[in-house]
Amino acid sequence: xxxxxxxxxxxxxxxxxxxxxxxxxxxxxxxxxxxxxxxxxxxxxxxxxxxxxxxxxxxxxxxxxxxxxxxxxxxxxxxxxxxxxxxxxxxxxxxxxxxxxxxxxxxxxxxxxxxxxxxxxxxxxxxxxxxxxxxxxxxxxxxxxxxxxxxxxxxxxxxxxxxxxxxxxxxxxxxxxxxxxxxxxxxxxxxxxxxxxxxxxxxxxxxxxxxxxxxxxxxxxxxxxxxxxxxxxxxxxxxxxxxxxxxxxxxxxxxxxxxxxxxxxxxxxxxxxxxxxxxxxxxxxxxxxxxxxxxxxxxxxxxxxxxxxxxxxxxxxxxxxxxxxxxxxxxxxxxxxxxxxxxxxxxxxxxxxxxxxxxxxxxxxxxxxxxxxxxxxxxxxxxxxxxxxxxxxxxxxxxxxxxxxxxxxxxxxxxxxxxxxxxxxxxxxxxxxxxxxxxxxxxxxxxxxxxxxxxx
Length: 456
What we know:
Layout: E1 2-10, E2 15-24, E3 27-32, E4 43-46, E5 48-50, E6 69-72, E7 74-77, E8 79-84, H1 97-106, E9 109-114, H2 125-138, E10 142-147, H3 161-166, E11 171-173, H4 182-194, E12 199-201, H5 206-209, E13 214-215, H6 218-223, E14 227-228, H7 231-247, E15 251-253, H8 259-270, E16 275-279, H9 281-285, H10 307-319, E17 324-325, H11 334-337, H12 354-363, H13 369-384, E18 399-409, E19 428-438, E20 441-445, E21 451-455
Helix pairs in contact: 4-7, 7-8, 8-10
């Protein structure tokens, strides 16, 4: 297969230029300037739009573009979401590995890391193997299991990290629950270091959180809802950073939501700690004001914060304090969401909106396109030790083709996900994946968007 004339963006190679890319045997076999690869014998996907117009949209490439070409789709390494909940095994009425990976593929993701809070919890190698087998059977996005830190995620005794790594786990976490015991967290970091596994921290002090259901502030006071202070996150971020410094282990902070947490991570990095961190699109797209009207789709954990926190998240992404953007895709059915706000489950779905929301950072000038792709692909691959994240020759042909100018309206009713708990329903976003390939196989495509010319 030859993808012809795309604007290739590959942060790993410092590349942002029109290129042709050839796929053979599931791998990238050539990446050359336009016209250098013969189409003979290959299926050709034309990633450029032509017109009689003499005005090129991307003027910085005018000298390279024939004037009739007004737009090129952007070709990137396959996007990687390092934080999703696929609910299988145990809660397949919310999501399955098949429906979750179909949603991932539609969203432009070629790989996802599945958190362990399934039923049963992924605390044994057999669960990790089951997840990988189900993902292989679905044949859509790659799924990398994240194993539980503790048995049952109860925070009492460690699971067998070595067995889990052999079964395909790429990290350990009790995500959904914090490890409240500092001693157990220390032991987890020491044990994980033995196997070169990152420890993903769900940073939350349960005693400070109490019965809180949203951010503690003026909005919670106005709505009469119990609040969760920013300090509940920041105290645990500080503790885990201190333990990372003590042990020398690799620590990854999940779903960062507060300005204080961003600053703590920034200082830890400056001190040389082996720490990385992620945030999610809802933390730079929404504030706690979204809870107004008691919208349970805006009930997430950690909660949506203030405008000041939102600005700090954007700055953390800009200056590198935050390494990755992950959706924290957390599907729930109406059984868990169509309830009084206090009783509703935490979580929203994000695989099919993550790219569109994140591209707003490019449109707003917060990140360059290359920086965004690094945070949605390359950095996740590096943190978790995954193949992919680059378009280098010899790399797996996991690719995402994006139309930066496509305007579309979010319609949760048309999602591939089984669940509909999306606070962005009705939003108009700019930029969307038009084709996703895993191992050279097209797993999602908008046929109207891309010209497939058959064999050259």
